[in-house]
Design goal:
187 residues, 7 helices, 57% helix, Tscrpt_reg_PadR_N
């Protein structure tokens, strides 16, 4: 079992889904393609971690719906007891920033403006989603609790990213007074 397998089981523990729907639902957490998801679903079904049924559709091809089994739920519960791996950063912008000294200032500004738009869109989306989480059941053990703290983490990260973009754009505009080390954060 790899991390994507556990992620798919986690989604199926909430409600049954087609492989395509699983691919869409996992994207906020983990980048995965059809070519990764469908073989894992077949393997997990073969190993008894999930089951499936076919739904006939008149206007589209029939679709296969997957459900987690008791064995799958047990595997997912066991996984929650394991140590968490350190976070992995895989961001194209970080690689580009490593080479930023080769870019012209206009390209750098565009890159940071694009990232600002991304963070603003993400913040708006997460704040909208936050409004859908029932506030009356934010106790540990409820799905709402996990959703709430995950959305809060996303909001904090997006707001920090937005602040960072604004800081760099000010530096690019020449508004930074501290020429010795403009990266020192003030307390």
């Amino acid at each position: 079992m790899n991390l994507l397998s556990y992620g798919l089981l986690g989604l199926l523990a909430r409600h049954e889904s087609s492989g395509y729907d699983l691919m869409l639902r996992i994207q906020p957490f983990w980048q995965a393609k059809h070519s990764q998801i469908y073989p894992l679903l077949a393997r997990m079904e073969k190993n008894g971690l999930l089951s499936s049924r076919w739904i006939q559709q008149s206007d589209k091809p029939d679709k296969k719906i997957y459900m987690i089994t008791d064995k799958g739920t047990h595997a997912l519960q066991q996984w929650t007891h394991e140590s968490v791996s350190p976070p992995v950063t895989r961001d194209e912008m970080s690689l580009r920033l490593f080479c930023l000294w080769l870019a012209d200032k206009g390209s750098a500004i565009r890159m940071f403006e694009e990232r600002k738009r991304h963070f603003n869109h993400r913040i708006a989306h997460l704040e909208d989603y936050l409004g859908t989480i029932p506030a009356e059941n934010l106790s540990f053990g409820s799905q709402a609790f996990g959703d709430y703290i995950l959305v809060q983490k996303g909001l904090l990260n997006a707001k920090a990213g937005l602040d960072w973009c604004n800081m760099v754009l000010k530096m690019l505009a020449g508004d930074v007074q501290e020429q010795q080390n403009p990266f020192m954060l003030k307390n």
